[in-house]
Amino acid sequence: MKHYITYLLLASALGYGHTVQAQSAPTSTAQSTSTRLTGTVLDEANKQPVPFATVALLPPTGDKPVAGAACDEKGSFVLTAPAGTYRLVVSFVGYTSRTETVTLGATAKDMGQLTLAATSQKLGEVTVVGEKPLVEARPDRIVYNAEADATNTGGTASDVLRKTPLLNVDADGNVQLRGSSNLRVLINNKPSAILAGNLAEALKQIPADQIKAVEVLTTPSAKYDAEGTGGVVNIVLKKNSLQGVNGRVGVAVGNRNQNLNGALNARRGKVGFTSSLSGFYNQYPGRSNSSRTDYLDGAIGQLTQNTENKSRGGGGFGKVGLTFDPTEQSGFTLDFTGNAYHSVNDQDLFNEYRVLPQLEQYNSLDTLYTRDIRQRTPSRNYDVSAGYTRTFKDQPRREWSVLGQHSVSRSRQNYTLDQFRAPELVENGNPLEYQERSENLALNRETTIQTDYVHPFKGKTTLETGAKAILRQVNSDYDLDTLRTGQQTDFARNDLRSNAFDYRQNVLAAYGSLGFSLGKKYSFTLGTRAEYTDIKGEFVGENGRFRNDYLNVLPTLSATRNLKKDGQTLGLTYARRIQRPQIYFLNPYVNQTDPRNISYGNPELRPELTQNLDVSYNTYSEKSSLTLSLYGRRTNNSIESVLTYNDTLARSESTFQNIANSSTIGSNLYASVRPVKGLQIGGNVDLNYVHLKSVALNRTSSRFLYNVSANSSYKFKEKYTAQFYAGYYAGWVQLQSRNSGYYYYSLGLKRTFLNDKADLTLNANTFLQSGINFRNTTTTPSFVSRSNFFSYQRSVRLSFSYRFGKVDNSAPQRRRRSIQNNDSKSGSSGQQGG
């Protein structure tokens, strides 16, 4: 019987059509006409559909199928076969196969709901549930199962996202999705205070050992917040809701990351408890050099800078969750996630500025000095959320939930610097000529309340409605003191570079979404989301207040057609989305650690409005999957980084403006196959063309971009698993800048021992060279700059993990709703948000 699925796949690949005919008829008399057989495959524990489960109709004896199909995304299947008696075999990876005897007559037969039980294998006191593939391509998302990848052990969330299909993560930790940095990163489908400020830095604070999976949604439906041009990236943390007490402890040591982590989970009857805690230390040294040519009036300015970076940071990350299910139809949740982090960045900066030819009006610009810069960023962040979910026994798909969350992010961004003149320019024997110190206290608070209701109608029609209120309050208090040696005896406040900024953003939203099917081949989802935004901002001083409010109606459409060949679908999705700028883009704090290149936010930014269109083709089977998509997006008021030139001070100034129209067209292909037992191979190719046009700057910028990645996993001799990942990203383009590409690869070997309760994993990342060189070129009418940043990427880690306790997967697993705030344009490295 084990050969029937292989036979079915080969027959489908050779194009035999929807039904595979047997070489011999079943024992009962075959009829000239065929009979329809339908049904739905559900998970036995949570009664949710099992998408793409394999269904085969076999004769009473023999393993050659008479008919076969893969279920659709709702677990439904349709088979046709002559009248007679058969064996119906239902199977899927991670579940125990089910066999039913079926007798077909002259009329159609409905098998109703067929449940599959998750497979489990007792390993001493620990129960391990069926193995997942590294990457799953689902109709609405790509899922990277990070916990199944041994090369992640001991790393950070940056390492995990770098290996997720469709995502690009550069050396600084900046994240892009399909060439767009306009995306929202969530934790467990919720916004997190941990990610509220500097996303690139925050991703280094989440240990990879606590990440279960990463979900990438490129075209979310109306029930999601208006996420913007790129999409939603959801980091799913590990948790355990099985009966019993279990846990794990782990330690990792390496030249880039070290961490100590543990987890404890317990569930007795109706009450469950989950917890995890980790301490970590990271270090990321680097060096850079840059040159800039300034076009002055009658002269050329030449800026040369060299920098040595020593970045390091450490802290703790933890979460606690409680669940209480008083009845089978109702459940309560209470969750807390928090972290404390302290990062240190020491820089040695060499600066030289020369004007050629020497002209009297530019003599004051000639400078030669070095700077010692010390940046300290302590932060504390936490999220508290609670929810209630109610289902209905008479209508399994009917559901109502009420959810709430409060998030707080508090960080200080402090720096001090000492500036020294070149020895040949020192007149009094003291090379120290200037000192500076700055403090920026940033406090973000966000409260969210939402309710959602799902109501099923006859057939497969479902109505989803909901409402939400998001209340955001941001405070940024920044001060700067300066001291000029020989002119002052103590530090003095610089009022021009000190201020306080208060920002409030309230969002009220409501949505409705109707899903329905037309016949057996077509399914549709029509939705609309309305969002009202009210913004208030205030600076200290005169004319420091501003206010803005707007209402947006955002439609969505999704259509799916099941093709004649089993397990294949064709989909079309359209969405109009809004993306509000996060505080990173709004905070007017002036980052002036490098006086020749300063940056600040723009509190008057407006939200982006984007049109998204996606056409996709999917085919799935037990051993292979393929997803091909063609996509396009258009943003008419894109928020872009804009660099201008200050002639008086000979410096570049960077901020953000709604200044461009952005268009992207592209295609993506992901394929995965398991050719032999124990081996999995997957690959991703993303090609896109980006075109930016700004009338205000009289400038266009475009580029053909691509990224390619491959992953593989092989399990041999039962105790050993080897995994490999490699990727190349061909850079990206901005309105005034172009960035070079980079590559990344990793190799991991895992050994399981102590009755499969312990793992020892050795990882090596980008190990054939010490690091990667990133290049950037920026062109404006006033200057041209070129920079090279060398990031030390070579890393080696040795990790140990031990699991303990006893669990039981016989208890039903409840699906739980969670908050999804994904409406803001997120920040990355560079200037910090408040």
Automatic annotation (TrEMBL):
Skewed-composition ranges (Low complexity): 824-834
Taxonomic superkingdom: Bacteria
Ranges for region Disordered: 809-834
Residue span(s) of domain Outer membrane protein beta-barrel: 394-802
Subcellular location(s) of the protein: Cell outer membrane
Pfam families assigned: CarbopepD_reg_2 (PF13715), OMP_b-brl_3 (PF14905)
Major location category of this protein: membrane
Gene3D superfamilies according to UniProt: Carboxypeptidase-like, regulatory domain (2.60.40.1120), TonB-dependent receptor, beta-barrel domain (2.40.170.20), TonB-dependent receptor, plug domain (2.170.130.10)
Cleavable signal peptide: 1-22
Keyword annotations of the record: Cell outer membrane, Membrane, Receptor, Signal
Protein name: TonB-dependent receptor
